[in-house]
């Protein structure tokens, strides 16, 4: 039998994790927990998983080798610390936690227990982003001069669970939840940290107390300017990252379609999209557990994303440009 794996949280993203784990035979799904036990039962049916309402009881009883934490953001810290203390390798959904202090608590517990842990920043495993990263690395487009990252889509839709709209439970709104994807893809594709931000947020959502939009001017460690524009209000959905170089441009749309210009119009570049991105994520997790090497999205890296998000909130509050606390090296 492979690494016995348990899932904590049977919500909207849980099924993607189940599919990812199933694709890697070295993992064996054994159990699932959700306070809504009915949901756990429904989701656990296919794999005949043992179902629990209390994740602590599941971890104590099942003693899994690995735990997947797919819970509301405010619960990432307590579940990660508990599972690490019980010897489980950890796949923690993004964002790592809702503050740098909480990230540090998780890292300390992981270090003490000697388990492997990573955060599921899915942008790393998207084929278009991986090819974009290679293009940036090979330098054929010249010098990077600016980046625009734009993502719009209705954040306040009725089907989004309530906890997403409470700052104390979600750590923030649009920027914490989806801005973190933008921050991740910008930093990871370019291999450079964002180290300054000036942000302006709005709070016009019809639910809760979190921001519904954010416009962020930022600079990376080499002074390259980056605009992040996120709107969660009604309008035409858009999800586009554009990297502009002296010798051309790269565009990633919807997380899937990659285009490159070397002068003139964009031309579509085919990417290998055959493999499930969650399967790639679990292949990375497996390799990290087996070899002891850091996963592509280590805790230090994921902490760096939270450092930027926290700085965005601080910048909005004080109205100034903020230096992002020093973050770990991008892998
Ligand atoms: N990587 C991605 O692209 C992506 C996409 C969606 C969600 N996410 C992340 O996944 C995580 C979960 O998001 P979601 O959309 O599935 O949320 P969700 O609200 O649909 O699911 C959370 C589940 O946790 C359960 N839960 C709450 N408290 C619990 C507790 N104490 N013990 C056990 N279960 C408990 C809830 O009943 C719910 O079923 C979040 O961190 C979110 O940001 C990531």
From TrEMBL:
Residues 4-121 form the Gfo/Idh/MocA-like oxidoreductase N-terminal domain. Residues 130-251 form the GFO/IDH/MocA-like oxidoreductase domain. It comes from the Bacteria. InterPro entries: Gfo/Idh/MocA-like_OxRdtase_N, Gfo/Idh/MocA_Oxidoreductases, GFO_IDH_MocA-like_dom, NAD(P)-bd_dom_sf. This is Gfo/Idh/MocA family protein.
